[in-house]
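Reply to dn_fold:

You asked what the input looked like. This is it:
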Amino acid sequence: MSKHGHTTLLSVRPCRGLVDEKITVLVKHATPVQQLTLHALLRSEDGDDWEAFGHYISNSAGAVNVCEDVCVGGTYSGQEPMGLLWSLRPVPGSRPSLRLRKKDTETPMVVTISLYQGFLTDSFTERLPLASRVVERWYLAPGVRRVELTEGGVTGTLFLPPGPGQFPAVLDLSGGGRGLAESRAALLASHGFATLALNYLNPKRSAGGDSHVGNDYFQTAFAVLQTHPQVIRERIAIVGLSFGASMALGLSVYSPTIKPSCLVSISGSHVQPAGGSLGDIFTEFKRNDKNTRYDEEKRVIWRDLLLPIPSDPSKKVDVGQLCCPLLLIVGEDDQNWPAEESARDMKEMMEMSGNGHLLTVLSYPHTGHLIEPPYSPHCHSSNFINAQSREKFVVLWGGEATAHSHAQEDSWRKILDFLKKHLYYGPQSDITSCP
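and this is what came back:
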């Protein structure tokens, strides 16, 4: 309660929304020019607590508007409307090298936002807040359907927007970690795209054996989308992150049946055996394993495995043959993949081949490898389990929290605009004629 006898009020709106939706946090009836701390607390599906906090000073009316006011300290600073979410980090004493990931997309991320008197930095749960509000952050919009898919030997999860369709579609290829990542696919479906999160790195589920899946597996997955009754078969994009981006580039150029309307490559590279398969790429990585580096904390740095960018055309995808619009998302501090060097080489190759008009590059300074949907906490390094060998280690991803988080917000908006342009509004006029 303020010194004027009013109960201090805290509002967070919307209290339920998509993870890429901004929230408005307001404080009213505090003491004028009062030091206050806003605190966000989230418990992950793995049982780990994550927190963020910001210090604010109420105005002469005893109010704080997080969208407009400056945070003067905490896990973030400055005018950062979403800092309470993107700066979430494991609470002190947590297990080391954690990464916040949403596995069950049919349940929300639940965040408790609380207001405290004074500038606090720790022991929040031991103190009584002035007010608290609970916020639900969803990857699935109301009406989006999640369907576990097993068809033609292909496994994955298909997300369908509300309604009968037909819908433009996305084949979503996640990176090289263990397990099927569904969150981005769920969010894309929430924006109107039928999206298949493809399981391609877990051979026991996807191939029924111990070997890597072949290119025919991806071709079957693409055909499954094309023939789905709720999909517009001529309007299918591929979105790939990291290893998935590399696969998407190779398949889009060399596959006789995979002809996407457009392609989004997030933190990827075209360096791989030209026309090769998933197994060929892994073989190339193992051959270059000697180039693995470690920082002073013994965290793995893999970006040199593909450097220098080869001049030998048999060692990289001939993107000069690419026939559809390509959006490259690049973090300039990517410590896992040579995304920036690869983007420069791809731009040169495409301009020399006459299809440079199909390329858009978004390059972000001080941004690391894991460029995820907006307001996801920046992950500088984390535990990693190799999908094939089951080996465990800590990988350095790179990036600086504020710049990385701004890049996630900007790139996601532009990814959605890119997909809408080329899947909704007549992309065929932008596609080069290919044999």
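The helical segments are 83-86, 183-190, 203-206, 215-227, 243-254, 278-287, 339-353, 401-423.
Hope that clears it up.
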